[in-house]
Amino acid sequence: MAMVFVILAGAMAQAQEASVPPLVNYQGMLTDADGKPLTGTKKIEFNLYDAATGGTKFWGPQIFSSVPLVNGMFNVILGEKDEEKRLITDAFESSGRYLGIKVNDGDELFPRQQILSTPYAIRAEKAGKILQVVHNQTNEFKTSDQAIPWDDTIPQQTEGVEVLTVAITPGDSSNLLLVEAAVHATEDNNTANRLMLALFENSESDAIATAVGDTNVVRDSLQTIPFKHIMTAGTTSEITFKLRAGLEAGIININGGYLGRKLGGTLYSTLTVTEIAK
């Protein structure tokens, strides 16, 4: 008995509410070599590849041991996971996916069926979701006379004083990392010095992002410098972000004034990294 073709009518199994389930509704038709629709039940196996022939298998197998056929037509729901516990959402991180089908442990049917746009909404549903948040804060009072130059050079990891660090291990190199900080600081001088923040990644010498506070600062005039930076993770290895602060000249005071800590230790500088699905 030959299975000569399958008609693809696959679509997302979408609900009306906002959340899209990670499932694909697949309808097909099986006939014999003479084109007559098959009946009864069949064992059907599904796999997803990146090519019409050969290629790499990204998902599967998912095996349905007893699929009923009505005038050759059948319907199955693919997902959420295959036999190896891999999510079907992960198979649609890139375009160009082809569905391979086997019936009753036979050879794969030819040709494979190309998956078009609809199931990619599965992956799109994940986009923008917050995957993890790593936070650190400190109320430690510290001072430093290590300047961060106000010129056209990139701040170095030897300049300023380290305020906070946060380590995060991204789940996917294509995800976004949102780095947010707020640092409370004053200066010892009565001169208008710029107060600057610089963000560093691991042991890299050059800062990857900076922020500048008010220049009209006088002694003990506290300012809170907000900081925000977004970037592609670029790796699944641990990243340590280091936040440093400094004046262009003079002594900087973190979480206090020139006479010491303020507000009884309730003044916290913060550093937060959020991983967002791309």
Topology:
Blueprint: E1 11-12, E2 24-29, E3 40-49, E4 57-69, E5 73-78, E6 97-103, E7 113-115, H1 120-126, E8 130-138, E9 142-144, E10 161-168, E11 176-187, E12 195-201, E13 209-212, E14 223-232, E15 239-247, E16 252-254, E17 256-257, E18 260-261, E19 269-276
Antiparallel strand pairs: 1-2, 2-5, 3-4, 3-6, 6-7, 8-19, 9-16, 10-15, 11-14, 11-16, 11-19, 12-13, 12-15, 17-18
Task: Tell me what you see in this structure.
The chain has 278 residues and is mainly beta. Helix content is 3%, strand content 45%. It has one helix spanning 120-126; strands spanning 11-12, 24-29, 40-49, 57-69, 73-78, 97-103, 113-115, 130-138, 142-144, 161-168, 176-187, 195-201, 209-212, 223-232, 239-247, 252-254, 256-257, 260-261, 269-276. Strands 8, 9, 11, 14, 16 and 19 form a six-stranded antiparallel sheet that branches. A four-stranded antiparallel sheet has the order 4-3-6-7, with no helix packed on it. A hairpin with a 2-residue loop joins strand 17 and strand 18. The chain is rod-shaped.
